[in-house]
């Protein structure tokens, strides 16, 4: 399976709390909710199509908990809740013992081997959404095949960013781009190899 990371980001690369402030999940961060005022129907449909496409989801523990509470309760909404609830979900966690959300498998250890096993399955797509720390780890361990960044025209100025200040370098090939009336831009890149330097 192709492993795709799909994240909503600001122009300055922040991917934290796009939907709103949550003191429990993002203590001290007060600039959450930067995506909601800029959403338009076309951009929302683009993101929903991305969620409907994969064969399975791979999530970090925090994101899984938030999504299970919110989207799991909307499993028949014909939208995001149905898209994620109807597919297998793999959650990376050493603390989650008995997940209540249907079609959930916990990955408690040996993440590189488990992700490699999932990717070795024939065809399809494994999608990472909303899990910034996991996305960074997967990229640093060279397990990401595709990046889908939905960039919002806002600079937040602080918060958790997708790309670290120091890390591996990657060559990217743009495979798709969309520009929406609100200024949101969808960018899809194939990840592979190292960039060339002058």
Quick overview:
The chain is an alpha/beta fold and 198 residues long. The chain is built from 5 helices and 8 strands, in the order E-H-E-H-H-E-E-H-E-H-E-E-E. It is globular.
Outline the structure in words.
This protein has 198 residues and is an alpha/beta fold. It contains five helices and eight strands; from the N terminus they run βαβααββαβαβββ. The termini are far apart. The mean pLDDT is 96.
Q: Tell how many strands the DSSP assignment holds.
A: 8
The end-to-end span amounts to 34 Å
Main sheet: strands, sense, barrel: 8 strands, mixed
Based on helices, strands and strand pairing, what is the structural class? alpha/beta
What fraction strand? Answer: 15-25%
Shape: globular
Kindly report the average pLDDT value.
Answer: 96
Low-confidence stretches: none
**Number of helical regions:** 5
Radius of gyration: 16 Å
Helix content: 10-25%
How are strands sequenced across the largest beta sheet?
A: 4-3-2-5-1-6-8-7
The helix/strand order is: EHEHHEEHEHEEE
Task: Break the fold down into its secondary structure elements and pairings.
Layout lengths: L1 E9 L30 H12 L3 E5 H10 L9 H6 L3 E4 L11 E4 L3 H9 L5 E5 L2 H9 L5 E7 L19 E8 L5 E7 L7
Parallel strand pairs: 1-5, 1-6, 2-3, 2-5, 3-4
Antiparallel strand pairs: 6-8, 7-8
Features:
198 residues; alpha/beta; 8-stranded mixed beta sheet; 5 helices; 23% helix; globular
